[in-house]
Protein backbone atom coordinates (compact mmCIF):
# COMPACT_ATOMS: atom_id res chain seq x y z
CA UNK A 1 0.00 0.00 0.00
CA UNK A 2 1.21 3.48 -0.80
CA UNK A 3 1.29 5.35 2.52
CA UNK A 4 3.11 7.94 4.57
CA UNK A 5 3.16 7.40 8.33
CA UNK A 6 4.42 9.72 11.05
CA UNK A 7 4.82 8.01 14.43
CA UNK A 8 4.00 10.98 16.67
CA UNK A 9 4.04 10.25 20.45
CA UNK A 10 0.32 11.06 20.71
CA UNK A 11 -0.89 9.24 17.58
CA UNK A 12 0.21 7.78 14.27
CA UNK A 13 -0.57 10.05 11.32
CA UNK A 14 -1.45 8.00 8.23
CA UNK A 15 -1.61 9.58 4.78
CA UNK A 16 -2.51 7.89 1.51
CA UNK A 17 -0.34 8.75 -1.48
CA UNK A 18 -2.04 10.42 -4.40
CA UNK A 19 0.99 10.69 -6.68
CA UNK A 20 4.73 10.22 -6.57
CA UNK A 21 7.65 10.32 -8.95
CA UNK A 22 11.35 9.52 -8.99
CA UNK A 23 13.96 10.83 -11.42
CA UNK A 24 17.70 10.71 -11.78
CA UNK A 25 18.88 13.86 -13.56
CA UNK A 26 22.26 15.11 -14.68
CA UNK A 27 22.96 18.60 -13.37
CA UNK A 28 26.06 20.49 -12.30
CA UNK A 29 28.43 17.75 -13.48
CA UNK A 30 26.77 15.04 -11.40
CA UNK A 31 23.72 12.79 -11.30
CA UNK A 32 21.11 13.78 -8.73
CA UNK A 33 18.06 12.16 -7.17
CA UNK A 34 14.67 13.87 -7.33
CA UNK A 35 11.66 12.38 -5.54
CA UNK A 36 8.27 13.87 -4.75
CA UNK A 37 5.52 12.16 -2.80
CA UNK A 38 2.11 13.87 -2.49
CA UNK A 39 -0.59 12.65 -0.16
CA UNK A 40 -4.24 13.19 -0.84
CA UNK A 41 -6.28 15.27 1.62
CA UNK A 42 -8.74 12.50 2.51
CA UNK A 43 -9.06 12.24 6.30
CA UNK A 44 -12.12 9.96 6.46
CA UNK A 45 -9.99 7.42 8.38
CA UNK A 46 -9.04 10.00 11.06
CA UNK A 47 -10.99 10.64 14.29
CA UNK A 48 -12.57 14.08 14.70
CA UNK A 49 -10.30 14.99 17.62
CA UNK A 50 -7.11 13.83 15.89
CA UNK A 51 -4.07 16.10 15.61
CA UNK A 52 -3.80 14.98 12.00
CA UNK A 53 -6.87 17.07 11.13
CA UNK A 54 -4.65 20.16 11.45
CA UNK A 55 -2.28 18.67 8.83
CA UNK A 56 -4.58 17.30 6.12
CA UNK A 57 -1.97 16.90 3.39
CA UNK A 58 1.80 16.47 3.12
CA UNK A 59 4.30 16.70 0.28
CA UNK A 60 7.67 15.10 0.85
CA UNK A 61 10.59 15.73 -1.46
CA UNK A 62 14.22 15.00 -2.13
CA UNK A 63 16.03 17.40 -4.43
CA UNK A 64 19.52 17.61 -5.87
CA UNK A 65 20.96 14.73 -3.83
CA UNK A 66 24.15 13.53 -5.59
CA UNK A 67 24.07 9.88 -6.68
CA UNK A 68 26.56 7.31 -7.96
CA UNK A 69 23.99 6.01 -10.49
CA UNK A 70 22.96 7.37 -13.89
CA UNK A 71 19.34 6.15 -14.20
CA UNK A 72 16.38 5.10 -12.09
CA UNK A 73 16.83 1.52 -13.32
CA UNK A 74 20.13 1.42 -11.40
CA UNK A 75 18.33 2.30 -8.14
CA UNK A 76 16.85 -1.20 -7.85
CA UNK A 77 18.55 -2.94 -4.90
CA UNK A 78 20.24 0.27 -3.72
CA UNK A 79 20.06 1.77 -0.22
CA UNK A 80 20.74 5.48 -0.06
CA UNK A 81 21.30 7.37 3.17
CA UNK A 82 20.75 11.11 3.51
CA UNK A 83 21.80 11.83 7.10
CA UNK A 84 21.07 15.56 7.08
CA UNK A 85 18.29 17.57 5.52
CA UNK A 86 20.76 20.09 4.12
CA UNK A 87 24.46 20.73 3.59
CA UNK A 88 26.52 23.88 3.22
CA UNK A 89 28.44 24.10 -0.02
CA UNK A 90 30.60 26.77 -1.55
CA UNK A 91 29.11 28.40 -4.64
CA UNK A 92 31.05 29.71 -7.63
CA UNK A 93 31.60 33.05 -5.83
CA UNK A 94 33.13 31.37 -2.78
CA UNK A 95 30.04 32.01 -0.63
CA UNK A 96 28.59 29.29 1.60
CA UNK A 97 25.01 28.39 0.70
CA UNK A 98 22.59 25.88 2.19
CA UNK A 99 21.42 23.17 -0.20
CA UNK A 100 18.30 21.41 1.08
CA UNK A 101 18.06 17.76 0.08
CA UNK A 102 14.88 16.81 1.98
CA UNK A 103 11.75 18.76 2.88
CA UNK A 104 8.29 18.11 4.24
CA UNK A 105 5.61 20.57 3.24
CA UNK A 106 2.35 20.98 5.16
CA UNK A 107 0.35 23.75 3.45
CA UNK A 108 2.67 26.74 3.61
CA UNK A 109 5.03 25.35 6.28
CA UNK A 110 8.24 23.53 5.37
CA UNK A 111 10.16 21.27 7.71
CA UNK A 112 13.37 19.29 7.58
CA UNK A 113 13.92 15.56 7.85
CA UNK A 114 17.11 13.84 8.95
CA UNK A 115 18.44 10.28 9.18
CA UNK A 116 16.79 9.41 5.87
CA UNK A 117 17.29 5.89 4.58
CA UNK A 118 15.80 4.97 1.20
CA UNK A 119 15.65 1.33 0.14
CA UNK A 120 14.77 0.77 -3.52
CA UNK A 121 13.38 -2.50 -4.87
CA UNK A 122 11.11 -3.80 -7.60
CA UNK A 123 7.74 -5.32 -6.74
CA UNK A 124 6.25 -8.45 -8.30
CA UNK A 125 5.16 -6.45 -11.38
CA UNK A 126 8.65 -5.01 -11.92
CA UNK A 127 7.71 -1.52 -10.74
CA UNK A 128 10.39 0.42 -8.88
CA UNK A 129 9.38 1.02 -5.24
CA UNK A 130 10.94 2.79 -2.27
CA UNK A 131 10.72 2.33 1.46
CA UNK A 132 11.85 5.66 2.94
CA UNK A 133 12.45 5.89 6.66
CA UNK A 134 13.60 8.97 8.50
CA UNK A 135 12.92 11.48 11.22
CA UNK A 136 11.14 14.81 10.94
CA UNK A 137 11.06 17.68 13.37
CA UNK A 138 7.88 17.74 15.44
CA UNK A 139 5.75 19.83 13.09
CA UNK A 140 2.81 19.81 15.53
CA UNK A 141 4.72 21.76 18.18
CA UNK A 142 7.49 23.05 15.90
CA UNK A 143 10.14 21.78 18.31
CA UNK A 144 13.48 20.12 17.66
CA UNK A 145 12.11 16.78 18.86
CA UNK A 146 12.24 14.19 16.09
CA UNK A 147 9.31 12.06 14.94
CA UNK A 148 10.05 8.87 12.98
CA UNK A 149 8.28 8.43 9.67
CA UNK A 150 7.99 5.82 6.96
CA UNK A 151 6.97 6.13 3.33
CA UNK A 152 6.09 3.19 1.09
CA UNK A 153 5.36 3.89 -2.55
CA UNK A 154 5.65 2.55 -6.08
CA UNK A 155 6.77 4.72 -8.98
CA UNK A 156 4.26 3.61 -11.59
CA UNK A 157 5.31 4.88 -15.02
CA UNK A 158 2.92 7.46 -16.43
CA UNK A 159 1.40 6.73 -19.80
CA UNK A 160 1.29 9.70 -22.11
CA UNK A 161 -1.63 9.68 -24.46
CA UNK A 162 -1.38 11.54 -27.73
CA UNK A 163 -4.42 13.42 -28.90
CA UNK A 164 -5.22 13.57 -32.58
Automatic annotation (TrEMBL):
Domain of life: Bacteria
Protein name listed in UniProt: Uncharacterized protein
